[in-house]
Amino acid sequence: MRTTVLLAAFALAGAACSLSDPGDAAERPPGSVTLAFAGDVHFEGGVEALLDSQESTMGPLARSLAAADLSVVNLETSITTRGERADKELEDPTNRFWFRAPASALGVLERSGVDIASVANNHGADYGVQGIRDTLAAGEASAVQLVGIGEDDAQAFAPHRATVRDTTVAVHAADASPLESEDPTWSARPGSGPGIADARGEGLERLLAEVRTSAERDDLAVVYLHWGAEGRADPTADQAELAEALSGAGAELPAFTSEVRRIDSATRERMTSHDESVCPVSLTSLRIVEVPYVGFDGFVHDGEVVVHEDVARDVVNVFAAMYRTGFPLQSVRLIDEFGGDDNRSMAANNSSGYNCRRVAGSDAWSAHAYGRAIDINPVQNPYVLDGRALPSSSQPFVDVDRSAGAASDQGVVTIDGPVARAFARIGWTWGADLDEPDYQHFAAPDPRRP
Hints:
Layout: E1 4-10, E2 35-41, H1 61-67, E3 70-75, E4 78-79, E5 100-101, H2 104-111, E6 116-118, H3 128-140, E7 145-147, E8 149-150, H4 153-157, E9 160-164, E10 167-175, E11 195-196, H5 202-217, E12 220-226, H6 237-248, E13 259-262, H7 265-270, E14 286-294, E15 300-308, H8 312-325, H9 342-347, E16 373-375, E17 383-385, E18 388-390, H10 418-425, E19 429-430, E20 441-443
Parallel strand pairs: 1-12, 2-3, 3-6, 4-5, 6-7, 10-12
Antiparallel strand pairs: 8-11, 9-10, 13-14, 14-15, 16-20, 17-18, 19-20
Helix pairs in contact: 8-10
């Protein structure tokens, strides 16, 4: 299954939210992750007194929020004591409200077990640029992570990423309620300065692009929206359309199925590049692994890779991780379909395993010749040899940022992306660390070494 896109949405007002108790973490199924969501939170009126105490919490909700692995609320207030009320000329003049609270409000959330607070709503910019900047400064000093707000559009639309029990979660936030004002603080755009993220017009396209990135990169993408019609619990037509678009950005795929088989007579005939009298391993030690993969076209394709029997099951787990996260592969075919020619396979951007060949420029056998290495998307992940990119079409990808948190292009392997993490889990090394980087190359430990 591709990355799940979970929609967590709360209406403008009057919506109720009930939280079930996640229970003791030790009693949950292995590998499970518990998320908790609450709706609108502000500190006006009767709840303002909470800010006067260093021990106050959100009451009974706090237990459920704190028990979850990750909890999110909609913070409907500007965290500031400064600034002027922002114009809200597009709102009903008889129904306009401006909310703000001091930084101690984040302390209440933190003590209540809140991990993330969305400020992308119809009160996030109530006190204009000053209020946004003060909110961001308060967030920097708090353990509660703020989303949906930023000094610029990049920060406003960026998700907060967290890792929970080896599961990466990206939490996006945007306001999809009626626009408050034409002032750019209510719709962060390139060059507009501080603002909040929205799901309207250009903002929707930006949000969809960010969710697509998370669908490729993370195990779970959460989209937390502020939307709907006043006092209405059922979704509007616009909500349904928006939900479909966001779900499509990380659409579910057919269940992952694989098969590991011995090299039968039909496969032997296909593996024309293998010479039993020369190659360092016998075909009896190899296995053909059949897996589905997501192509660059977004469709599911059937792939085949040959590896050593000792690593076959681990390889299945790696391809399952790539499939589940939607990481795209151009091609997964036996090297023999390219005449055993590694250069031809790389030029075709083919992800491959076993290949009875020597290390480039050496008499030593490659790890591929033992069925203990796999190359992933060679065009997007080049082998840099003597300053030259192989294949030649990979030259534009030589200097791509592959560091943690980097926004990568389609098919690029990054240090904290799904491919590198999946191989690391099975103990394989990545060629990015070599003196001459081989970004496509992943290899199993050499069993001949102590």
